[in-house]
Amino acid sequence: MKKLINNPNNVVEEMIDGYVKAHPTYIKRLEENDRSLVTARKTTDNKVGILIGGGSGHEPGFLGYVGDGMADGVAVGNIFASPPPAPILEVTKAIDKGAGVVYLYGNYAGDVMNFGMAADLADMEDIHVEMVLTTDDVASAPIEEKEKRRGIAGEFFVFKTAGAAADQGYNLGEVARIARKTNEFTRSMGVGLTPCSLPQTGEPSFEIGDNEMELGLGHHGEPGIKKVPMDKADNIADELLKHIFADMPLNKDDEVAVLVNGLGSTPRLELYIMYRRVEQVLKEKGIHIYRSYVGDYITSLEMGGCSITLTKVDDELKKLIDHPVDCPMFVQK
Amino acid sequence: MKKLINNPNNVVEEMIDGYVKAHPTYIKRLEENDRSLVTARKTTDNKVGILIGGGSGHEPGFLGYVGDGMADGVAVGNIFASPPPAPILEVTKAIDKGAGVVYLYGNYAGDVMNFGMAADLADMEDIHVEMVLTTDDVASAPIEEKEKRRGIAGEFFVFKTAGAAADQGYNLGEVARIARKTNEFTRSMGVGLTPCSLPQTGEPSFEIGDNEMELGLGHHGEPGIKKVPMDKADNIADELLKHIFADMPLNKDDEVAVLVNGLGSTPRLELYIMYRRVEQVLKEKGIHIYRSYVGDYITSLEMGGCSITLTKVDDELKKLIDHPVDCPMFVQK
């Protein structure tokens, strides 16, 4: 796989370097760890800090979501690997204003361990931390074991509502409650068409035939539910939605926020064709779409495919979904 | 190439259908032509209309740039093909408020013919039209034949400044002057790593070896300057910038807006590594970066590679670059 890189061992450092230089009014590096970044904007006093993080290669996730109305800081890991506790702790200390910090991250073993350790260290410095895991991927474990599920693109809605809540002055417990509620009301499922390759190894992230796709693929290439022959976009959307509806029953007149997320190399044209079908199916069921997002929100380098996310929204979540955002990779008026 | 589509002959209709359903508060279809779209927002009285257009497959170009502060309407063509005169004329009539309409499009034979014919037809209906071609691709013809050059990602800056000027109340001649000035001060050059394939034919858009890249590739796969072996990102950036500087000399303390544009399947991580080098080189030359854009702004389906665009900015252009924008695929506060 051809890549626009220099030394494969330096891709994360060089990306961060370019990112900070491109957006100096938005984000800055902290001093101890090269991969600890915080907003360059002045935030409100007593605001609860929002800390996000995880592996690189998911851009705009995660550093792209540091900015007004979303996260205050990010700890950046290697490609598809969790950041260690040190940068997480450094960001925690930098963004805590006495009101505590909420950690938002996907449910992966490395992240669970490292964010947990960082929270323990923060506790020793009397910083209150709440941890919220996202577990939106319905394909990754049965509903009875929801706590084992991976976080995929639905993380975007957790960042969005929790970030808005913190910006609107909610306290630590309330911001964490919003994040958990959003996760509880969020379901995603993806389909993988073509793998990406890691810069250091050049190995494909998963194996797939020329006329196959993998339903329920995880966003590091983790196995999904099954490999099936390629199909039409409408049928793929129907299949993904079927799994989502089975997992989170929605009733007529329920309202949802929708995300059709590209995994990296899928053209917007295709994502909108997928969205078209999602809208048709929801309409047939009498489910109202409150707000839609279509594009690359949480990617896997140049992986091909997409995921569909539905978040059931009530009045409280709607107000937070509508809250303005100003980040380098995502702006909402 | 696997694609998330239904019938390959319907991809443009279905994309537009999904797009309008996803963003109903931003954009709407006109009645006569399925591919005539205009802003759903109320615009100022006597505002000069901004009409953009061209082939599909370049999303966010072009329909993604209809919205506040950019274009008022778009005529959408087939994949990589110009829209015919009829939808262009229909959009023209819909967005003309008596102050005239500016057509902004890339310098391609089909577009030149169809937008020209639409302008003639508009003239018969007493609508004043100014046409501005973008010709930013330095690799497509020598400077002596600048009028033969293709428009590539630099179109984004032409849309940005002309859209802002119209929004700020500039008259028809002034908006056209701004668009031409921006084009005059804009240079781009791209590099192609991997082709895309057209939904209807499945054929790759250009041929390239496993360890090769094409310098100066056009955004429909038109031949560039030469095929060369893959190289490091820094060397590629240096090479692209060398051609740009040779074409548009920049002096110490000049200011530029920078766009590092992905062609479709190139991860943001790589685009920021490219940006990192662009910033280094400009800094060494004492050229100041006024504002930066890094991401997928004008794509070629799932083509791999990127382009670099520099626009020399003065006080007038800076004010327009800074003007806020609210479009479904591009928001700037």
UniProtKB/TrEMBL annotation, chains A, B:
Domain DhaK per the UniProt entry, residue ranges: 7-330
Keyword Nucleotide-binding: yes
Transferase among keywords: yes
Cellular component GO terms held in the UniProt record: cytosol
Molecular function via GO: ATP binding; glycerone kinase activity
Any single Pfam family the record assigns to this protein: Dak1
Listed GO biological process terms: glycerol catabolic process
Domain of life where this protein originates: Bacteria
Keyword list, A-Z: ATP-binding, Kinase, Nucleotide-binding, Transferase
Transmembrane segments: none
PROSITE patterns for this protein: DHAK
Protein name: Dihydroxyacetone kinase subunit DhaK
The organism of origin for this protein: Oceanobacillus chungangensis
